[in-house]
Amino acid sequence: MKYMLLIWNRPGFTEELSEQDRTALFGEVDEIMKELTETGELIGGQALANPSQTLTVRLVDGNPEVLDGPFMESKEQFAGYLAVDCDSPQRAAEIAARWPDVRYGGAMEVRPIMDEAGTEM
């Protein structure tokens, strides 16, 4: 089963870390990515640019309008994703729980990826 692990964190939190903590965090990410590559579970993933570079399209007065920013109410913003192919939702959650951003107030959302056949999982 394929899962999307959505990374949510507070923009700029890594700049608040000491250089040692930042190096350790990115080292953990590298270790997880290496492991998932070696096991064949990693399908893909990317970090996203700062939310200040975001455009949001919303319907305003019946017309699509492009607005600056993500306009989220929460402090956390969507920061990137991993796509994994693993045996169970528990394994996907295990991978997400190891992601270091979680320790710094972030969150990982684990969602099954819908099959190309349609909306049924």
UniProtKB/TrEMBL annotation:
SUPFAM superfamilies: Dimeric alpha+beta barrel. It comes from the Bacteria. Gene3D superfamilies: Dimeric alpha+beta barrel. InterPro entries: Dimeric_a/b-barrel, YCII. Coiled coil: none annotated. Residues 1-115 form the YCII-related domain. Pfam families: YCII (PF03795). Belongs to the YciI family. This is YCII-related domain-containing protein. It comes from Micromonospora vinacea.
